[in-house]
């Protein structure tokens, strides 16, 4: 069975595997895959958060068979599996991978989703929903799609009993403090104890937006805390205490221009 898994990354010290699936049902203007296709967590890619975009990264051309994905996970002896996007819930193989890892390795499976499709949660232990915006006009402008289904699915996921959290990207002057407040208020209407993470935007695609300052991130956290009890921020500059390597494609393959045009699509900001 062919999957849409195009990248598996692994953090050996924490035994976390990151599975990246291609295809998405949203068309976010700030999608990070426009900038770097292969995992931002890779040691080789960590500096690219602060890089200026240089065009649009090339889509992946190689995808894994289901048996190869499962065999790779077994070989790594993983304890955590993160199902990431674009949007992993679109791939019919995702629940099969989750089941195999859960049953045979006893993994903790974490699904990152935009919530546009109600995911199969039978073998998922945690869910993180990326809420792009609450205002319907803003969501339509940013993603090209209505958020009606997402706002309906969010409480359904909560009622499933699977632990969940939510994330929103802070974009100064666009998805700003006021919008963060609207998203937080919506989350609180489901449960004020749901964990909410505010992520600092990094420049991707052909957009006019800039990265938020540390003060702007903290201001958004303060706004969200008016409604929610567990609010955190990721500024993109935090130190990381573990390494991440690419398993598929291999690090050696990613070093070639043929398989890593995304790395060539950025250049560091001069200091």
TrEMBL record:
Its cofactor is [4Fe-4S] cluster. SUPFAM superfamilies: Radical SAM enzymes (SSF102114). GO terms for molecular function: 4 iron, 4 sulfur cluster binding; catalytic activity; metal ion binding. Residues 24-178 form the Radical SAM core domain. InterPro entries: Aldolase_TIM (IPR013785), Organic_radical-activating (IPR034457), rSAM (IPR007197), rSAM_sf (IPR058240). Keywords: 4Fe-4S, Iron, Iron-sulfur, Metal-binding, S-adenosyl-L-methionine. Pfam families: Radical_SAM. PANTHER family: PYRUVATE FORMATE-LYASE 1-ACTIVATING ENZYME, PYRUVATE FORMATE-LYASE-ACTIVATING ENZYME. This is Radical SAM protein.
